[in-house]
Specification:
Layout: E1 7-9, H1 17-33, E2 36-40, H2 46-60, H3 64-68, E3 80-82, E4 88-89, E5 92-93, E6 97-102, H4 133-158, H5 167-170, E7 175-183, E8 193-198, E9 204-209, E10 215-218, E11 224-226, E12 234-238, H6 240-245, E13 255-258, E14 266-274, H7 288-291, H8 309-320, H9 322-328, H10 330-339
Parallel strand pairs: 1-2
Antiparallel strand pairs: 2-12, 3-6, 4-5, 6-7, 7-14, 8-13, 9-12, 9-14, 10-11, 10-13
Helix pairs in contact: 1-4, 2-4
């Protein structure tokens, strides 16, 4: 393991112009050099963090049949419960169980010729045995969205843009995705892959961890940085939308989670903030000094990046959840097979 992640205090944005400029410089440096950092001073009280963690624990403690009643395979919108081993990263099974929700919006009509990503919008599935989960997670979604947008505005300023530079592609219907996750201990698997090495597809990810470590961030030397839990802090990372918009000046960083040792488990609550599904990611006109350091978006034939937000997001969902893809996107898969 190499160095630890930097710690940034969001309250510095309101601490006077000199401190504000210093914070933006630290933000730009952390995002470019590491791609991950701890965020404190975000304003979400410890009581709300503890509350959402408690509800997550209660959900995972439900009987298997109660969790399977809201299985993701029942949702064309990729919402609901996924058992350990059912999600795939880079062709290998992840050893974690999870529950996904998004913004509560009505499903769009299935019109002939409509883009396939229009199927992503729709209602969540909620467990009847835990009615308090819905208000807890929706309140969490609202609170963390506010923090994410404030941080996104800071990123725009740090890149020499107006604070509202990204608003045209998220305003009205940002992609809001919560994933509560439990990683069972290693006694249940011979593999240490909790979740395989990957990048995130949105603007930003804000993660709350419990006291169990396991999140690791790739560094430029080929090693891994342990993102050890810091009480009250979010772990924040750059997603592919910021990489595309900045022409690779910022780059989404590869990360993974190692399965806890036998007899332990790990709980996390991840929030992914993204653009509207119907948006196209712009190429920012960076200041000359920053533009000269832009490396271009990463080229990966196994993970091509699309500026069409809905297309990029759907690509990841279909790969990660082949059972949902087979149940609800068989027509799309057959079309792709014919074209191959």
């Amino acid at each position: 393991m190499t160095a630890s992640l930097p710690i940034l205090d969001l309250a510095r944005l309101d601490a006077g112009e000199t401190e504000r400029r210093s914070f933006l410089e630290d933000l730009r440096r952390a995002a470019r050099e590491v791609g991950f950092f701890y965020l404190v001073g975000h304003g979400i009280p410890e009581s709300q963090i503890a509350g959402v963690q408690t509800q997550a624990r209660r959900f995972f403690a439900l009987p298997a049949e109660e969790k399977r009643a809201v299985a993701m395979v029942k949702s064309p919108h990729f919402r609901g419960y996924t058992e350990a081993g059912a999600e795939i990263t880079r062709g290998r099974a992840d050893w974690r169980e999870q529950f996904d929700i998004g913004a509560e919006r009505p499903a769009l009509p299935r019109e002939p010729g409509a883009p396939a990503w229009t199927r992503l919008q729709g209602p969540n599935l909620w467990p009847a045995a835990l009615p308090e989960l819905r208000p807890e997670l929706l309140a969490w979604q609202e609170a963390v969205t506010r923090v994410g947008i404030r941080l996104l505005e800071a990123f725009a300023l740090a890149l020499g843009q107006p604070a509202e530079a990204f608003a045209p592609i998220y305003a009205g219907a940002p992609n809001q995705h919560i994933k509560i996750i439990r990683y069972p201990g290693r006694e249940a698997t011979d593999d240490d892959q909790g979740v395989g090495a990957h990048k995130d597809s949105g603007f930003l990810t804000l993660l709350v961890q419990d006291g169990e470590g396991g999140l690791e961030v790739a560094d430029d030397a080929g090693g891994w940085i342990a993102a050890s839990p810091v009480p009250g802090a979010f772990v924040v990372n750059v997603g592919e939308l910021l990489e595309l918009a900045s022409n690779g000046y910022l780059r989404a960083t590869i990360h993974r989670v190692v399965t806890p040792r036998a007899g332990r488990d790990r709980l996390s609550v991840a929030f992914f903030l993204g653009a509207r599904h119907d948006a196209t990611v712009p190429l920012l006109d960076l200041p000359t000094d920053l533009a000269a350091q832009a490396r271009g978006a990463a080229g990966d034939p196994d993970n091509p990046l699309f500026r069409e937000v809905g297309r990029n997001y759907l690509k990841g969902r279909l790969r990660s959840h082949p059972d949902v893809a087979a149940a609800h996107y068989a027509d799309l898969l057959a079309k792709e097979a014919r074209a191959a």
